[in-house]
């Protein structure tokens, strides 16, 4: 590739420098495999979470998190979701929110939901400063845990009984930055940390996302972009996310419909 760039620059009478050439950088990133581009995307979002300064008005989540190695080349990830502060008002009628936390391993091609389901906290009613103190554990293959770009996507959502759940914000924690614990018991969790929960922003969709978006015949790229664009455009979880809280209303409707059908069958039978 360097040789091709050199000859192109000679034809264009442009000075060639591998380190500084924008042409070289763009050609290189366009040749990057889909899986690596997706990892780069999450690396950048992890950096965004880590480097964001927290003020009194920042939406935050307080938690304790750590891991211990297990037999069979597995990692046991433990976390205590403690509380959130400054959750935005997402219910205009109550002028409050009904927040809950969703924990998801990313990227999805590494951590399919069938093998790595996404746990959620309980829903806290009408509060902008919810408290949970809920403990979660996840088992992750060691070969995936330490890959640069593998991360936890932690979302705070506002539960809506009638409509869809709105995303209040997200944080991305690189798995490789999570501290090791002395033991698997909850008492061995590291000290609590406070992380910013940031709103979905156009700034998070960089050049790697634009390249992936153009790979319309690549199933991995398409699934990734569809998922992220749904969140960007609607500020809601996509239907394929399998969130129990999201589809609770639909399940209730289905159950009520089935009850009515059964009553009708029994009535007609007699």
UniProtKB/TrEMBL annotation:
PROSITE patterns: C2 (PS50004). The keyword Ligase does not apply. GO terms for biological process: exocytosis. Keywords: Exocytosis. Pfam families: C2. The keyword Protein biosynthesis does not apply. GO terms for cellular component: secretory vesicle. Residues 57-188 form the C2 domain. This is C2 domain-containing protein.
